[in-house]
Amino acid sequence: MKDSILVINCGSSSLKFAILANAGQTTLVEGIADRLGSSESSITFKYQEKKSIVMLDEGNHKNAVTQVKLWLSAHSDIEHSLIGIGHRVVHGGEAFTKSVLINQEVINGITDCSKFAPLHNPAHAKGIEVAFELFPGLPQVAVFDTAFHQTLAPEQFLYPIPMSFYREHHFRKYGFHGTSYRYISQRLAQISLGSDQQGVLVAHLGNGASTCAINHGQSSDTSMGITPLEGLMMGTRSGSLDPSLISFISHAENISADEALDILSKKSGLLGVSEISNDCRTLEEAMASGDQRAKLALDMFAARTAKHLVSVATTLESIDHLVFTGGIGENSSYLRQVICSHLKALNINIDSTLNESAPRGAEYDITANNSNTTVWVIPTNEELMIALDTISLIQH
Ligand code: ADP
């Protein structure tokens, strides 16, 4: 059937892709090209439970998309089933409040937002241009991480700095993980009738992590800001802290403010505190064998996540649902338990047996009998949202 969508997610040094069929319900093939820009880049295809790896002579986005095109030429049934391409785009600024069909004006708009996402947006624009070149007949759609949060009220999205910075430079909170939050909101409405009319808190906890409050299906506040550095402690990012630290670190280490910022972005968070790893699984293993630094890092992560859940909850009338998602939210029963232990004052309680037995990759209700809020584990599916947006836009 002719109903497949190629979903492309271009990072600064990677390109993830997937081809989804059957209204996004079936993943035919998926893969990742990584270490782009180095001499050791390769692309992996996962098809029919088997993995194949192709080394890239020249590791760049164009070659990665060319390899996808070549793979498709050898699987012509899938190639002929393609009807469009959906691109994940990190930053849509204030220009993009929803997904859009891509034309030159949209590419220019994505490029204009590069100042806020200098590693990602230029890579997205490149990926889109290459895809137009290699798949000239296919319509393409851009799906923005920031778009879902364009419903925030000014008192939530403005920073308390001189207004001229907002007027002249658009410095404000944008928020990220919007495609994930939109998926969770819609999925929750399907599995828990009426939840789209209620107050929902979501913790998207992966290497990057954020929280979001969803009021009647719309984002009312989120923890990330003008960039994904604000808010929670993350794998390598510090999250929110006293901005004076940038000046202290740069003076103490005799480095520039940008270099200090780089430390907050790449050497902080779980990695910086544990001095072991940014990876939650590795830290849980270290903690299990008695490493106190790993435990401290994980417990700080949990405490700060709870704080940012409460912070965004101030925009809700009631907290009817709390959802954990993302690699950590879906898989770490330890962190879910510690996070919820900080939310007792709000009467949010989980059942420890249900929490520990939550099956991997499934939607699961882990609420305790005495909880005011229903607590869920729901695996996110950003690729599905991108495919559905693409189908919907190309059919109109
Ligand atoms: P991102 O998309 O932001 O790169 P993911 O959502 O893939 O991140 O989440 C990655 C994180 O999820 C890593 O810290 C990883 O250790 C954690 N994770 C994955 N599986 C497990 C697990 N079984 N237990 C604990 N943490 C896990």
UniProtKB/TrEMBL annotation:
<feature type="binding site">
    <location>
        <position position="382"/>
    </location>
    <ligand>
        <name>Mg(2+)</name>
    </ligand>
</feature>
<comment type="function">
    <text>Catalyzes the formation of acetyl phosphate from acetate and ATP. Can also catalyze the reverse reaction.</text>
</comment>
<feature type="site" description="Transition state stabilizer">
    <location>
        <position position="237"/>
    </location>
</feature>
<keyword id="KW-0808">Transferase</keyword>
<protein>
    <recommendedName>
        <fullName>Acetate kinase</fullName>
        <ecNumber>2.7.2.1</ecNumber>
    </recommendedName>
</protein>
<keyword id="KW-0067">ATP-binding</keyword>
<dbReference type="Pfam" id="PF00871">
    <property type="entry name" value="Acetate_kinase"/>
</dbReference>
<comment type="similarity">
    <text>Belongs to the acetokinase family.</text>
</comment>
<dbReference type="GO" id="GO:0016301">
    <property type="term" value="F:kinase activity"/>
</dbReference>
<comment type="subunit">
    <text>Homodimer.</text>
</comment>
<dbReference type="InterPro" id="IPR043129">
    <property type="entry name" value="ATPase_NBD"/>
</dbReference>
<dbReference type="InterPro" id="IPR004372">
    <property type="entry name" value="Ac/propionate_kinase"/>
</dbReference>
<keyword id="KW-0547">Nucleotide-binding</keyword>
<feature type="active site" description="Proton donor/acceptor">
    <location>
        <position position="145"/>
    </location>
</feature>
<keyword id="KW-0479">Metal-binding</keyword>
<feature type="binding site">
    <location>
        <position position="16"/>
    </location>
    <ligand>
        <name>ATP</name>
    </ligand>
</feature>
<feature type="binding site">
    <location>
        <position position="88"/>
    </location>
    <ligand>
        <name>substrate</name>
    </ligand>
</feature>
<dbReference type="InterPro" id="IPR000890">
    <property type="entry name" value="Aliphatic_acid_kin_short-chain"/>
</dbReference>
<keyword id="KW-0418">Kinase</keyword>
<feature type="site" description="Transition state stabilizer">
    <location>
        <position position="177"/>
    </location>
</feature>
<keyword id="KW-0460">Magnesium</keyword>
<keyword id="KW-0963">Cytoplasm</keyword>
<feature type="binding site">
    <location>
        <begin position="279"/>
        <end position="281"/>
    </location>
    <ligand>
        <name>ATP</name>
    </ligand>
</feature>
<feature type="binding site">
    <location>
        <begin position="327"/>
        <end position="331"/>
    </location>
    <ligand>
        <name>ATP</name>
    </ligand>
</feature>
<feature type="binding site">
    <location>
        <position position="9"/>
    </location>
    <ligand>
        <name>Mg(2+)</name>
    </ligand>
</feature>
<comment type="pathway">
    <text>Metabolic intermediate biosynthesis; acetyl-CoA biosynthesis; acetyl-CoA from acetate: step 1/2.</text>
</comment>
<dbReference type="InterPro" id="IPR023865">
    <property type="entry name" value="Aliphatic_acid_kinase_CS"/>
</dbReference>
<feature type="binding site">
    <location>
        <begin position="204"/>
        <end position="208"/>
    </location>
    <ligand>
        <name>ATP</name>
    </ligand>
</feature>
